[in-house]
Amino acid sequence: MQKTLVLIAHDNKKLAMVQWARRHHACLSRHKIQSTSTTGQLLQEGAGLKVECLLSGPLGGDAQVGALVASGQISAVIFFVDPLTAMPHDPDIKMLMRICDVHDVPLATNPATAECILRSHLLEKE
Ligand SMILES: O=C(CO)COP(=O)(O)O
Is 62 one of the catalytic residues? Predict the structure, then answer.
């Protein structure tokens, strides 16, 4: 089974996510990608990636990703979080991060760590 790479970004980090995805288009396009709704739409339009979109984060998208991680379908989660803005769905975000730790699934919450995950070739083993 080919596992999925998840890409998510909070609103203030969406531009950084699209720029990051453009830079890594060659690598990313080899993977099945899922995203929360708004992030996914921007990645398709701005970075030319094929993305399967889930619900938007505040409407349950992070919870959907958590369920996918728990059921062993995700190779890594790249989640550019905004640490300076309060989120109404903070419990869902915390849940997703906890579930990644429970199942030892790589989770990058900023571009520097995302870079490490891509360079680690961790994804190539999937
Ligand atoms: O809020 C999010 C993650 O917590 C992201 O959701 P969107 O991609 O729909 O903006």
Answer: yes
